[in-house]
Amino acid sequence: MSESLAGKIVFITGAASGIGKATALKLAKLGANLILTDVVEIEYEVAFPESAQQSDLSPIITAELDVSNEAQCQLVVKEVVQYYGRIDHVFNCAGINPTAYSILELPDGYFDKLWSVNVKGTYNVTKAALPHMKEHAGCSFVNVSSIMGQRPAARVAAYCATKYAVMGFSKSMALELGPKGIRVNIVAPGFIDTPTNNSVVAGPDAVKESEASVSLGRMGTAEEVADVVAFLMSKEARYMNGSEVSINGGLKY
Fold this sequence. Notes:
The protein is an alpha/beta fold. The protein contains 9 helices and 9 strands. Helix content is 40%, strand content 15%. The mean pLDDT is 93.
C-alpha cells in the first residue's frame, strides 16, 4: 500500500481534526503529497505536532475552504493544480455531525446547513477536482457517509437524509466514472471517538451507551477509519468501486 500511494496528490476536506486529520497523518507517512483543507485555518505545526519529529513526511499544503461555497472549491483546486499539475485522490471528509431534534423542532436553517456541507460540499469538491484527475491512472474518490446513511435513527432525520444522499450520489458517481478508470468508494463510520462525535459531546453516559451497542465494546478511533481510507485509495483496492465500507465495530442494534 505504501508504494502505491507514494508521491500521489491527495486532496482532503475536513482535515483539521478527527477522521480527516488522522487520514492526513496516515497518508503523509505513506508518502503522499497532501492538500489539507478545512473551514477553519489549519495551523500545521499546532494541528500536526507529530510532524515535528518526522522530517521524512511528504509535502503538505494547507488551505481554508468552505466546501459549501462552490466558487471557493474551484479556486482552491485551481491553485493546487497550478502547483502540482493534477489530483490523484480526493477524500471528501468535511461534514457536520448530528444534533438530536424532533422533526418539528429543527431550528431554522439547520436542514439547509447540513445539506449544504454534507451533500452539496461533496458535490462541489468533486466537480472542481474531477477535470484534473487522469483517466485510467488509479485515481479515486473516498466519500464519508455514516451508519446513519445505512440505517435510520429517530431524532436525526435531517442528518440521515444527508448521509443517505451521500451514499446515493457516490454510487452514481461510481457508475459514471468507472468506465474512465476512476473509482468511487464510501466509508460509513459508526461510533468514532472524535471531538465532534455527538456521544463524546454529550458526555460519559452517552459514550457508555454507544459502547454498549457495539459488539467490540468500545468506540472506534479516527486512526482505524484512516487505515480503511488509505486502503481504498491504494492499488490493493483497485477492483473496489461503488463499495460502502462499514466501520462500526459490529453494531448490535
